[in-house]
Design brief:
alpha/beta; TIM Barrel; 8-stranded parallel β-barrel; two-stranded antiparallel sheet; 10 strands; about 35% helix; about 15% strand; Phospho-2-dehydro-3-deoxyheptonate aldolase; transferase
């Protein structure tokens, strides 16, 4: 086909094409040095040990719904580092550092896609801002967790990540299951927005085996990926259709589904989203119920997720007025003082569980 012919049939709805920096160039500009690389590997190993119950602490993935202000996120990380050290005997704290915001319809899609918060879509600047923040958080001594939405993005940032997630809207996607099978860190699979847990169980099974699929390599060139499968995938319960699934009955049912699929019986409970009725103030209520289950000896619960930031609640992204520092522009979050209280409750539940169900006992 001639160039003229191609012009008539291709890119009819593309406004413009901007060159994308390569992963290799970004890694060169913002390198993961040897001490930080060792910290990432230690973080991944620690998460896997908690998932496998070789470590009886509780995994706690906590942080803003989606980072929009790297300075405020780093401020949060400094406070989180202190709390993580205080509870290190009972909790393995991983900072939630999410840069891609899946949308049901439309809205701000995250720091990588739109770092200027203005619709300008400077993805190259967003990738640099994201990687720079991840390195800063690692320098503080905190492992980081990210949700992977775009299948190209991991080449730019995944080397810094200790724990990853596939969200409720993408857990059924073959692309994301294949991606998870090749990622180097444990991956949490969330149940679907309609509450389907079986779909996430299927995703864990699919990501646990080898796959072959097209992608890009570190130089940004098209490549065929041959994966080995990811044995560290696990189930995340986040409720669905306005109904929670963190209660003891739901936990038992989910563990039964994992057992029937011959998968490890381990759950992370997301205290936000439909489990809290999308009310950030109810996250401690969810945690209190989970803590009671743990204190009663439930060992199938290996982790908790929290949406938390410096200032409670959320705010709209409004170009006519300045944003409040440290408050989410996506989902509403717990404030910092309430987050510290939740840490104390979870740590106490871990200690109680050690008495009620010592390591090596059957699941509750």
């Amino acid at each position: 086909m001639t160039t003229t012919g191609m012009g008539r049939v291709s890119d009819q709805r593309i406004d413009r094409i901007v060159p994308l920096t390569t992963p290799a160039l970004l890694h060169h500009e913002l390198p993961l040095d040897e001490p930080l690389a060792s910290a990432v590997l230690d973080g991944r190993r620690s998460v896997a040990q908690v998932l496998d119950r070789e470590d009886d602490r509780l995994l706690v993935v906590v942080g803003p719904c989606s980072v929009h202000d790297p300075a405020a996120a780093l401020d949060y990380a400094r406070r989180l580092r202190v709390a993580a050290a205080e509870h290190a005997d009972d909790l393995l704290v991983v900072m939630r550092v999410y840069f891609e915001k899946p949308r049901s319809t439309v809205g701000w899609k995250g720091l990588i896609n739109d770092p200027g918060l203005d619709g300008s879509g400077d993805v190259n600047a967003g990738l640099r801002a994201a990687r720079a923040l991840l390195l800063d958080v690692l320098r503080l001594g905190l492992p980081v967790g990210c949700e992977f939405l775009d299948p190209i993005t991991p080449q730019y940032i995944a080397d810094t990540v200790a724990w990853g997630a596939i969200g409720a809207r993408t857990v059924e996607s073959q692309v994301h299951r294949q991606l998870s099978s090749g990622l180097s860190m444990p991956i949490g699979m969330k149940n679907r927005p309609d509450g389907s847990v079986g779909t996430a169980v299927d995703a864990i099974r699919a990501a646990g085996v080898p796959h072959v699929f097209p992608g890009i390599d570190i130089s940004g060139a098209p490549a065929i990926m041959h994966t080995r499968g990811n044995a560290d995938c696990h189930l995340v319960l986040r409720g669905g259709r306005g109904e929670p699934n963190y209660d003891a009955e739901s936990v038992a049912e989910s563990l039964s589904l994992l057992r029937a699929a011959t998968l490890p019986e381990r759950l992370v409970i997301d205290a936000s989203h439909d489990n809290s009725g999308k009310d950030h103030r109810r996250q401690p209520v969810v945690v209190a119920d989970v803590a009671r289950q743990m204190a009663d000896g439930q060992r199938g619960i290996v982790g908790v997720m929290l949406e938390s930031f410096l200032v409670p609640g959320r705010q709209d992204l409004d170009p006519t007025r300045p944003l409040e520092y440290g408050q989410s522009i996506t989902d509403a979050c717990l404030g910092w003082p309430e987050t510290e209280e939740v840490f104390a409750d979870l740590a106490a539940a871990v200690r109680a569980r050690r008495v009620a169900a010592p390591a090596g006992t059957a699941l509750g």
